[in-house]
Design goal:
Rossmann fold, OB fold (Dihydrolipoamide Acetyltransferase, E2P), single chain, seven-stranded mixed β-sheet, 8 helices
Length: about 425
């Protein structure tokens, strides 16, 4: 079959008919009165699989779907990073669109959802790798499918070619920093001014001599910045990305939108949603993905709980000529959302919460007089829940656009434009 899975002699195999696709991209089959989830299988296919609980391991595809395509990298099926490479592009994008539609339907929201904005392969600029010692060698890669096993990565169709080329260099750093038994987590980001690498899970007993060896190795490998357990250990050049007219240097290991093309699409949609607003509040602003581009035409008040992210935003704004005033406020919007009275001075709001959504802040927005809202989310379920609150508060949907930021995974980014 196309993903490299083959029948293993001696393994008890059951023939299954895949009837639909589940929300996580698994094929779904009925067997003896219960549902089974079969990763890497597609609707309409007849497959053989090994059953374990409510899941089944695909052994062979007996009858393939016409929408099945070949794998895009040599690790597919073993690596847990992708789950949908085997689905043809048009069907794959429609699957993601239907995920958003299903979440809206669950909240009794009848709305048009735009076609998904596709993002090219090999554009993911930020990735989290794992490194572990296996005998005398270091293995750096991604976790296997539903496993703690680390799959060494030689090629990848998702991350940038620069990150692929960086992997052998990370082995050298991991050989110095990885603990004897546990895995080391490596967050690597490619920026125009160099790689930003953050190591977490380095043992507490890491010696001063080893730290010197580590920073020397990072310099010799040409990294822009290296941090160890949250502290910057070496910085030859601050990793910098463009944010509107500004140049932003995010905190080491800090959040950054995964792909540059998807970020550009999101910024465009957010600016369109804000329209001609002159006073904008950016809730859960991070380092300024939206605040800095919006500041070209409007005053912006950025609210965020992470001090380092706010500091990076503030530095970038102060160094950029021609921006409207940008103010910052450190605040936990989960525990202390901006109230409807505090929101009175703004004519537009941007809200981009974590996956859990923002129930408390959304409730205050729903009671506010803010005219326009740009709503950004990476979780269709919490997006639909919070959107329901805003609709009940008197807003109407102007546009909902999914963006395929998380290539070949079941996850989706969404931008919605609302107005009173």
């Amino acid at each position: 079959m196309s993903d490299g899975t083959c029948f293993i002699p001696g393994m008890a195999a059951t023939t299954l008919l895949i009837s639909e696709m589940g929300s996580q991209g698994d094929g779904v089959a009925e067997h003896e009165g219960r549902k089974l989830f079969v990763p890497l299988a597609l609707p309409g296919e007849t497959v053989t699989a090994e059953i374990s609980g409510d899941r089944a391991k695909l052994i062979d595809v007996v009858t393939a779907s016409p929408e099945r395509v070949g794998q895009r990298c040599s690790h597919y099926g073993e690596c847990g990073g992708c789950s949908l490479q085997h689905l043809a592009d048009a069907a794959y994008l429609e699957f993601k669109r239907k995920q958003v539609m299903a979440a809206l339907s669950f909240q009794r929201i009848d709305a048009t959802v735009d076609p998904v904005i596709a993002v090219p392969p090999n554009t993911r600029r930020r990735a989290v790798f794992a490194a572990v010692r296996v005998g005398k060698t270091m293995v750096v890669g991604f976790h296997g499918r539903r496993s703690h096993h680390i799959v060494p990565i030689r090629d990848c169709a998702v991350i940038t070619p620069g990150l692929v080329a960086l992997l052998p260099k990370l082995e050298r750093l991991a050989a110095i920093a990885a603990p004897p038994k546990d895995a080391l987590t490596i967050t690597a980001t490619e920026t125009p001014t160099g790689f930003d690498v953050a190591l977490t899970g380095v043992a507490r007993g890491f010696s001063a001599d080893d730290r010197v060896r580590l920073t020397q190795a990072a310099g010799e490998l040409g990294l822009g910045r290296l941090s160890v357990n949250g502290e910057v250990a070496m910085e030859l050049a601050p990793p910098t990305v463009r944010a509107g007219a500004a140049f932003l240097s995010p905190p080491s290991g800090g959040f950054l939108q995964a792909c540059e093309p998807s970020e550009a699409a999101m910024v465009k949609l957010v600016k369109e949603a804000a329209g001609d607003a002159r006073k904008i509040v950016d809730l859960f602003s991070g380092s300024g993905t939206f605040s800095l581009p919006l500041a070209s035409t409007a005053t912006v008040h950025a609210v965020e709980s992470e001090e380092a992210a706010l500091a990076a935003l503030d530095r970038a704004a102060r160094k950029t000529q021609g921006l409207k005033p940008v103010t910052i406020e450190r605040r936990d919007l989960f525990r202390r959302p901006l109230t409807k009275d505090e929101l009175k001075r703004f004519d537009a709001a941007v809200i981009d919460p974590p996956r859990a959504g923002a129930e408390a802040q959304t409730a205050q927005l729903a009671a506010s007089t803010v005219k326009r809202i740009a709503m950004v989310s990476c979780n269709a379920g919490t997006f639909a829940r919070d959107l329901r609150t805003l609709l009940d508060g008197g807003y109407r949907i102007r546009r909902i656009t999914p963006i395929d930021q998380f290539l070949w995974s079941p996850h989706i980014e969404i931008v919605a434009a609302l107005e009173r």
